[in-house]
Design a protein that fits this description.
By secondary structure, the protein is of the alpha/beta class. Helix content is about 35%, strand content about 25%. Helix 3 packs across helix 4 (about 125-135) and helix 4 (about 125-135) packs across helix 5.
Length: about 260
């Protein structure tokens, strides 16, 4: 059984079909990168996995469990109580384009807060682990700094440490470098590379083609709410089979991003 099972997922906003029957499995320990132009459905798919968006049709399971839904006696899905969804969501880490750190808390306190409040970890134990995680992302010396005292790249690394502190079985990354100055991108990608090498299961939406080629187990190219092509990075970048994939890669190559 795959860790993530996405089956025929449809999502519409108003009159716009954003996801049109997306199906995808992510095995434990895999890194799957989602590529595609803005509006292709990458972010919406990630948000559906974490039940930050509801699905109109289809289903998503993480570790064999529906997230946000339960199956009724008639076999149909119904939304489950928020407390149940929150407990499942606690095991799914998500890092967004914007850092979303608590401005009134230090880096250390940002990492400590959720394990203490959500998981009930003793504060002393949470602080010890938080310091270890900040060291892992190269920020132990910034533990006492507030977000406004950190660069964008440093804030994003704190956000990653905060997500990992919850010991998630799955990490979702949504264009985590898109809000950063170009010279700060590498430091964030290096942290994600280290997590990938440790065996963390990841599903990432990214515009960083070189990173996807280096780190991904498989790459999914999305267009108009559909997965057009899914393949190992060597195949998708080196010998894409679909015309839409070929056109996309030509555009990013011409733009100097590949």
């Amino acid at each position: 059984m795959a860790l993530v099972e996405i089956r025929d997922v449809h999502k519409r906003f108003g009159q716009q079909d954003v996801l049109k029957g997306v199906s995808l499995d992510v095995e434990a320990g895999e890194v799957v990168c989602l590529l595609g132009a803005s509006g292709s459905g990458k972010t919406t798919l990630l948000r559906c996995v974490n039940h930050l968006e509801t699905v109109d049709r289809g289903e998503i399971k993480v570790a064999g469990e529906l997230v946000g839904y339960a199956r009724g006696a008639n076999g149909k899905l119904k939304e489950e109580p928020d407390r149940v969804t929150s407990a499942k969501r606690a095991r799914i880490g998500m890092v967004f384009q914007r850092f979303n750190l608590f401005a009134h808390l230090t880096a250390l306190e940002n990492v400590v807060e959720a394990p203490v409040q959500v998981l009930g970890v003793a504060r002393a134990d949470a602080e010890k682990r938080a310091l270890d995680l900040l060291a892992r992302v190269g920020l132990k010396d910034k533990a006492g700094h507030y977000p406004h005292e950190l660069s964008g790249g440093q804030q994003q690394r704190v956000a990653i440490a905060r997500a990992v502190a919850m010991e998630p079985r799955l990490m979702l990354f949504d264009e985590v470098t898109s809000a950063l100055d170009p010279d700060l991108v590498a430091e964030v990608l290096d942290v994600i590379r280290e997590l990938a090498s440790s065996g963390m299961t990841m599903l990432l939406a990214t515009h960083e083609m070189g990173f996807a080629r280096d780190v991904a187990s498989r790459v999914a190219f999305l267009a108009d709410g559909e997965i057009v092509e899914l393949a190992p990075p060597a195949d998708l970048f080196g010998n894409p089979q679909q015309e839409r994939t070929q056109r996309f890669l030509r555009r990013v190559t011409d733009a100097g991003r590949l």
